[in-house]
Amino acid sequence: MARTVGMSDGTNATAVIDQLFAENRLFESGDNETFQFSTTIKSDDFEDIFVDLQFEEKNAFVSTLFPEVTRKEPLNETYMDALYSEVLGVDTFNPNGKPEAVPGGYIVRGIGKVKANDGEDYGDSLVKALDAKIAQSSLRDKIQCCYILDPTPPSGEEILNEEDESPLLLVTNHDLSPSTDVFVKTSVTLIGLASIAFVSLDSFSFNDEVLNQISVSANAGKDLTWLYALALPLALSTLTIQLIHEFGHLIVAVKDGIDIGFPTLVPGFQFGLSGAITPIKSPPKSIKSLFDFAIAGPMLGLVASMVLLYVGLEMTVFMDTAAREQLPSIPVQLLRSSTLGGGIVDYLLGDGILSSPDPSEMIKLHPFAIAGFGGLVTNALSLLPIGNTDGGRICLAFFGRSFSRVVHGSAILLLVVAGLFGGDEANILLTYAVYTQFWQQQSEIPSRNEVDELDSVRGFTAIGVSILVMLTLIPVP
């Protein structure tokens, strides 16, 4: 009703009624002494409504591409005036229109005017030039500009003409660090550590030799420190693999100047940990930097896991019978959840050890082997293209922000289908799908340069890692 009288805000009912009365569109009926409203709507009103619907559709679409942290504080409109007058121009980025408001900031369409430095991508040179001018302006430490592909929905004409997304500037607040609750992060990490300890101790629950010793110790009134000593190698090995994973992230973060938060250990049912969440607190300088950061952790984690798995299996094979009776156990069902990991176990131990008709049968392995197998699976899971996991970040860098959302949805669907109907008897895939939807479903914050594509080396690396992930996560047939 407010729009029919040229008012954008309909919350003040009195003002709306006064305007209707002034336009002679509110009159008193002589029969029943009631007021009636003339519903004549001007053609301009329909245009306004249509424009508003387009605006809401655009905002809803853009909101799916960027995390909520980009929208935690609205960008001051006066910053855009200063940006146009003090930063943008023929020597940096020449805008061809007014800034367009989007959730979390503004987009500026135009043409970059910076000359690329030798051996440097154009987007990197442009971002450096913009940062240099921002540092000398009144906007220092207030905003940052990211060179990205157009995040708004394509028009019908653009779709028909198969036009590529055009590059533009996304202007946001300078602070894009995620809002985290220290108490929650600490609590989850402590639960993660407790989960490692529980799984390590539980691995002896089907070991008759150990259970007998527990019974004897309990009857004699002795403590169980010897049991904790047995479980300690598995717990420390599991934690060490995750720390190596995080060290990989740290190396790239230091090299590229990415500000990251302290990782949060996430508990897991099968292996003690589902992984860790390492928040990125400042935008990477480019999608290449984001790719390097994302892949470094899982790659080091996979290498460490393979080494521990092999060493642990070799120690299992050459261990004497008495020592083997003190080893932790892992169910055949869990080993069969990975073609790669299970294949390595079956090859080194032999005797068709995974061919048991009873999936609940327990196999005694050295703690290094169990930790290595678990690390192999959890690091492979972290490389799945979902949200802001390492795999989600790699997917964003490889496919772009828009299409990566499609890949994200497809990956979740495949995990659910595989978990319910694909022979995932250990429920590893289904559990991870649920975990990511609660903890890591949102995309990553924008990188400073998302226009220049990955080079061929990184592209082939991503393809190779994808094959490794499939071999690891496909169950043994």
Structure overview:
There is one protein chain. The model has no long low-confidence stretch (mean pLDDT about 90). Helix 8 packs antiparallel against helix 9 (about 285-315). The protein has 17 helices and 12 strands. The longest helix is centred in the middle third of the chain and has 32 residues, at about 225-255. Strand 4 and strand 5 form a beta hairpin. The protein has a 4-stranded antiparallel sheet. Strands 1-2 form a two-stranded antiparallel sheet. The chain has helices at about 15-20, 45-65, 75-85, 120-135, 155-160, 180-200, 210-220, 225-255, 285-315, 320-325, 330-335, 340-350, 365-380, 390-400, 400-420, 430-440, 455-475; strands at about 25-30, 35, 95, 100, 105-110, 110, 145-150, 165-175, 265-270, 270-275, 330, 360-365. It is an alpha+beta fold. It is about 55% helix and about 10% strand.
Report the sheet-strand fraction: 5-15%
Give the number of helices.
17
Q: Poorly predicted ranges (pLDDT <50, ≥5 residues)?
A: none
User: What's the assembly state of these chains?
Assistant: single chain
Helix coverage percent = 40-55%
* Spatial sequence of strands, sheet with the most strands: 4-5-8-7
Q: Please give the largest β-sheet.
A: 4 strands, antiparallel
Count the beta strands: 12
Measured on Cα atoms, how large is the radius of gyration? 29 Å
Arithmetic mean pLDDT: 88
Order of helices and strands: HEEHHEEEEHEHEHHHEEHHEHHEHHHHH
Distance between the termini: 64 Å
Structural class: alpha+beta
Please tell me what the overall shape is: elongated
